[in-house]
Design goal:
single chain, Rossmann fold, 726 residues, 5 domains, flat, 6-stranded antiparallel beta sheet, alpha/beta, 39% helix
Length: 726
């Protein structure tokens, strides 16, 4: 059976990623006659789920298994093989890999444990295994993988017992870094009658890693959305490419990232490093590239349920019809909390509805009251009042248990709801217990998902409404943003505040005027040249937070106070940091008052340079009012970052305060992000705190800065697998 065109590479060879889901022939190495063993279950499931391709059991112990001829080695298989499953010990896996390469098998799934999860020896064995695979031209999923599934074709290359219960194929896909928990999510989805068509677990990710699988899944034309259970991302660039593809293809990635707490504190030398945690960076990247990030699997599956019905709201304006006034209030509150709007109906529409039921709530939410039980026909008019309006983007219905408990009412409500969906084209979500009778079947066939909790229903709808809006914003931004062609910035000395600010000034960041003094008298001369008042600060590569040791003096207004301050700083350093190297004392102009911000660069080991913007000053770490983006950013993104700050109103001027030069701050964020990319090879962290945003037209000024350079010994080279992926 020839491969599909979309499953081949330009060279004509089978695409190894595609073979995880679209293989036409499968070799099960280590096949067993016991259907309950790891080597027997893949064969059982391939046959049970109707796999139409060829199955080749490979074992010298049997002549046949279940009527299928066995082969002593994959080399003995008579026809071509797209995918091999290795259900053998870790010790045997390298030899089997050689056989697979000789047979021309492009992809192997390695069930075997006993590699990196065992410690140093296991990691070394895994490295040797994947290096051998790269040399042989074979792609590896695993080791320690639970395999991959395509329920649409019956390709069940797994030993997971989740397939003991029947699963229905559908328009969703799932990739998980945990085999067992991924299978648990699949089981939950099936219990909720969600259709998951494609499923993969990536195991140790010695070669094929989650980002590659994501990229393949979001290109699949039969998939509406991809669910992802993530413990860590290994290749940030590949992950970003997959996220960008998902947005362009219109297939959202709904992602849950576990391991949010940073276990153990690292010694951060800058404010930026102290503020930013790894989870902050993951969430920033998820937002920047339009992923739908969730906190729980329940939330993930709620969203998946709506996506499975094709619900992608065109806006955030919601109409509500309820049989309960209390539920109507609860839904309205949930909409407000989730950033959705509940527009009030015009007075003439309200008056018309009130004539039908004088005691009904008719403003939106519409409370149809219990009168609907007596007069089911009024539902058409009440619902229609919302469905026809152009200022309503989606409709939420609450009928509690009545749909399933009262047959006549349930049928009427569902029939009219399905008709309104068809006529209006708007997405509907119902909060109800429809049971398993006629009403439930009509809901399912009519494209109306139901959930049982009002708050969860609204949060799922809101997540998709926000995603649709975010997608449109990002696609437009990517189309209009100028290309970021950034040349590498050579490494330079920047280990003191004075050197760091000279570096920043050389790359377009305005810094405070300052000079370096080696004696009290020289400090006084510099102060006179700069103009009073001035500030004095120690200049040392060993003292990051100068205020903490009393090595800063502000507002000095004459030569005598400058000379005295110089001596005081020298004594403070001698007393509190006697081992610090001192390279003079900075004499700096006193910058006029403004809004204190912090700008920073943090080089993340996964996603590379990140740029930070937040409220600054001495309380930056305490306030934790900051936003992050992966560098570089354009002006629109930088402006978005500022507007996300809780303290953004300070820049706009509050209580008579001056409006800050926001445009200059935006330029500063953009400029710093370009530095982050240009110097990514050597800058570990960069901290500007504070950056003073002066009144409009005055610009912004970097008053203090610190750069921490990356240790050359920690600048890794990519692994053979990573080099091959790139």
């Amino acid at each position: 059976m020839p491969p599909r065109t979309e499953d081949t590479l330009p060279t004509g060879r089978a695409d190894p990623l595609a073979m995880l889901f679209h293989a036409r022939s499968v070799a099960v190495v280590g096949a067993s006659g016991s259907e309950e063993s790891i080597g027997g279950r893949p064969i059982k499931y391939l046959r049970r789920y109707g796999f139409g391709g060829r199955i080749y059991p490979v074992t010298p112990r049997h002549d046949s298994i279940g009527g299928l001829r066995c082969h002593a080695s994959v080399r003995d298989i008579p026809g071509p093989v797209d995918l091999a499953i290795l259900a053998v010990s870790a010790a045997r896996a390298p030899k089997i890999l050689e056989d697979c390469a000789a047979k021309g098998i492009p992809t192997v799934i390695v069930f075997s444990a006993g590699f990196a999860e065992l410690g140093d020896d296991g990691r070394a064995a895994q490295a040797r295994f994947v290096e051998r695979a790269a040399r042989l031209g074979v792609r590896v999923c695993g080791p320690n993988s639970m395999g991959a599934i395509n329920l649409r074709s019956g390709l069940t290359a797994t030993f997971s017992s989740v397939l003991e219960h029947a699963h229905q194929a559908g328009p969703l896909a799932l990739v998980s870094q945990s085999g067992m928990y991924g299978a648990y999510i699949l089981a939950q989805a099936t219990a909720l009658d969600l259709g998951l068509g494609l499923f993969a677990t990536t195991g140790n990710e010695a070669d094929i890693e989650l980002s590659e699988v994501l990229d393949h899944l979001v290109r699949d034309p039969e998939t509406r959305a991809v669910l992802a259970y993530v413990e860590q991302i290994r290749d940030g660039d590949a992950f970003v490419r997959a996220a960008e593809t998902a947005l362009k293809e219109g297939r959202p990635i709904v992602i849950i990232k576990v391991g949010r707490s940073d276990v153990g504190a690292r010694a951060a030398r800058s404010h930026t490093g102290a503020i930013v945690g790894s989870h902050d960076i993951y969430e920033a990247v998820f937002r920047q590239y339009g992923l739908v990030s969730v906190d729980t699997v329940d939330e993930m599956l709620d969203i998946a349920r709506l996506v499975g019905h094709g619900i992608f709201p065109a806006g955030k304006r919601v109409g509500i019809v309820s049989l309960s006034g209390g539920a109507a209030i609860m839904l309205a509150d949930a909409c407000a909390a989730s950033g959705l709007e509940v527009p009030e109906l015009p007075e003439d529409v309200q008056a018309r509805l009130r004539r039908r039921v004088p005691f009904a709530g008719v403003a939106n939410p519409i409370d149809a009251t219990g009168q609907l039980i007596n007069e089911p026909d009024i539902y058409e008019e009440f619902l229609g009042a919302l469905a026809v309006r152009e200022d309503i983007d989606a409709i939420v219905l609450f009928f509690g248990q009545m749909i399933g408990y009262v047959d006549g009412l349930g049928s009427t409500v569902v029939e009219e709801s399905v008709k309104a969906v068809r006529d209006s084209g708007k997405p509907f979500v119902m909060v109800a217990m429809p049971g398993d009778g006629r009403a439930a079947r009509m809901l399912r066939e009519g494209g109306i998902p139901h959930l049982t909790d009002p708050d969860r229903a609204v949060r799922a709808l809101a997540a998709l409404a926000h995603h649709v809006e975010r997608r449109e914003t990002l696609l437009r931004r990517w189309q209009t943003a100028p290309a970021a062609d950034i040349a590498p910035i050579p490494e330079t000395e920047a280990d003191t505040e004075f050197a760091a600010k000279r570096f920043l000034a050389a790359h377009g960041i305005r810094t405070a005027r300052e000079r370096l003094a080696r004696s009290p008298e020289e400090a006084a001369r510099h102060a006179g040249a700069l103009g009073y008042p001035v500030a004095l600060k120690v200049n040392s590569p060993d003292i990051a937070h100068k205020t903490d040791i009393g090595a800063v003096r502000l507002g000095l207004r004459d030569a005598e106070s400058v000379e005295s301050a110089f001596d005081e700083i020298a004594r403070a350093v001698e007393d509190r940091a006697p081992d610090a190297e001192v390279r003079g004392v900075l004499v700096q102009e006193m910058v006029p008052p403004g809004v204190e911000l912090i700008l920073g660069i943090e080089r993340d080991p996964v996603f590379g340079p990140m740029v930070l913007c937040g409220l600054g000053g001495v309380h930056a770490e305490l306030l934790r009012d900051f936003t992050l983006r992966r560098a570089p950013v354009d002006r629109e993104t930088a402006d978005e970052m500022l507007r996300e700050l809780r303290g953004y109103a300070l820049l706009e001027g509050v209580r008579g305060g001056a409006v800050a030069d926001i445009d200059a701050v935006v330029d500063g964020v953009v400029g710093l992000s370009r530095i982050a990319v240009g110097a990514r090879a050597w800058i570990e962290e960069l901290d500007i705190n504070p950056l003073i945003a002066l009144p409009r037209g005055g610009g912004c000024v970097a008053v203090d800065a610190l750069i921490r350079v990356r240790d050359r010994s920690t600048r890794p080279r990519p692994s053979p697998a990573a080099r091959r992926r790139r």
